[in-house]
Amino acid sequence: MEQHTRRKKWLWLLVTATCALGFLYFNQQTAHAEPTYTIGTGTTFEPYEIESKDGSYDGKNNGIDMDILKAIAKKEHFKYKLKVMGFNAQLQAVQAGQIDGMMAGVSVTDARKATFDFSTPYYNAGEVMAVDKNSKIKSFKDLKGKTVALKAGTTGAIYGESLQKKYDFKIKYFNDSNTMWNDVHNGGTVATFDDGPVLEYGILNGVPLKIVTKPAKTTPVAFAVKKGENQELLHKFNAGLASIKKSGELKQIINKYLNGNAVKTDTASQRTIMGLIKNNKGTLLSGLWMTIELAVLGIICATVLGVILGVMGISDGKALPWTASTITYIFRGLPMMVLAFFIYIGMPDVIGQKIPLFTAGIITLTLNEGAYIGAFVKGGFKAVDREQWEAARSLGLPYNRALWKVIAPQGIKFMIPSFINQFIITLKDTSILSAIGVMELTETGTVIISKNMEGFKVWAIIAVMYLVVITLLTWLSNYVQKRMRV
């Protein structure tokens, strides 16, 4: 008995010691775990950001910003997830707390200092004016009465705006450099203002423009976080920057891109339709899958909301129909892009919680498409003869059973074509979510063009992909309608 007690005691001590060691090990691992930050960046601001052919930033020549961020993260032992979106969307996402910081060739200005905290600058950039390579425009004076292209929210835009009154030109805004440059080349606008290094790198890679002014308004470029927040991240960035600056690594990174050593001009075969498809098939399929995923989940959630609104719309009394009509009116009346920005950028400030990008996209589709579905669900129920209601109620069926057993099966026949049509509309509407950085098919096209400047060919490929999917959905719609008639 005594021996049994002794064994029990030793076993208990062994278990206790094992648990204690495990607890200490877990604490040590947790203490030394590298923090992970969400960093915003862009797709079309070379040489600051240059995506690899697979759409990632994991290669050797991903741009000044990406190389600097990788080097600093390695030095300071932190990890990061990149959120790719337009420049204006990044600014708003930092302010809303959706991302921890942004690394996108951000110029430090007095206006931005009011809402952002900046790192130590790692580069000084100057703004230049560029025109089509065959243009006769040589100076600001030649801009009088003409239209100039500016990228919204950038220092190039600020510089261009400061010259507008003096030189009497009009302004047309864009969200990315590539579209803006193409507009100048195609004659939609006559000139653009952008960072000198960005334009120089683009021209080296085939952008059909030429720079006609010397760099002006030199401003420092730095990493940005929301004012008063993420100070630990900012401290790590500054410490890492100082380290790579002292070692000479920072200078090597910058020289690699600005001296032309990292120019990435594609061969002629890579710029053909088949070459573009072959080189970007993974990215294209990923964008297509994201589009389909958004459309399917969006239409399912929107259908649930739409049915609820439709049922509320035909309810007895005034409160429920009025509520349904108001919700439908609001979300049918709001432009979808405004709704997307409100949910992804605006709502986090109100609720104090980040909303994941994909979730924001689904919510946007649900509210917008659900309002339209609610309208035709209500119409489908009302299309059923009133006598059907009366017959069902006269048989003693309560309202809910009469609705789902008698009216709904007949009303659905009227709704099916509208449901299929709304699915097609939802599929196309996913392209609007590219404005907040969702990497669906349209945003994928923008990314690919930013790497090769083959706008016509890439958009032709994207258009065909959309048409194929929509054609399949149309065939499905026709098949379902025929089956419903049988």
Give structural attributes:
MetI-like, 10-stranded mixed sheet, MetI-like_sf, 17 helices, 62% helix, 486 residues, cell membrane, D-Maltodextrin-Binding Protein, domain 2, alpha/beta, 13% strand, ligand-gated monoatomic ion channel activity, single chain, 4 domains
How would you explain this protein's 3D organization?
The protein is of the alpha/beta class. The protein has 17 helices and ten strands. It has helices at residues 2-32, 64-76, 87-96, 110-113, 155-167, 177-186, 196-204, 231-247, 249-258, 273-313, 319-333, 336-351, 357-383, 386-394, 399-429, 441-452, 455-485, and strands at 36-41, 79-84, 101-107, 116-118, 123-132, 147-151, 170-174, 191-195, 209-211, 216-226. Strands 1, 2, 3, 4, 5, 6, 7, 8, 9 and 10 form a ten-stranded mixed beta sheet that branches. The termini are far apart.
Poorly predicted ranges: 23-31
Number of strands: 10
β-sheet strand percentage: 5-15%
Q: Can you give the mean pLDDT?
A: 81
Counting helices, strands and paired strands, the structural category is alpha/beta
Measured between the Cα atoms of the first and last residue, the distance is 84 Å
The number of distinct helices, counting runs of at least 4 residues, comes to: 17
Number of domains: 4
Main sheet specs? 10 strands, mixed
Q: In the CATH hierarchy, what is the class of the largest domain?
A: Mainly Alpha
Please estimate the helix content.
55-70%
Spatial extent as radius of gyration = 29 Å
What is the helix/strand order?
HEHEHEHEEEHEHEHEEHHHHHHHHHH
Question: What would CATH call the homologous superfamily of the largest domain?
Answer: MetI-like
Shape: elongated
Indicate the CATH topology of the largest domain: MetI-like fold
CATH architectural group of the largest domain: Orthogonal Bundle
Family: Belongs to the binding-protein-dependent transport system permease family.
Subcellular location: Cell membrane
Signal peptide: 1-33
Keywords: Cell membrane, Membrane, Signal, Transmembrane, Transmembrane helix, Transport
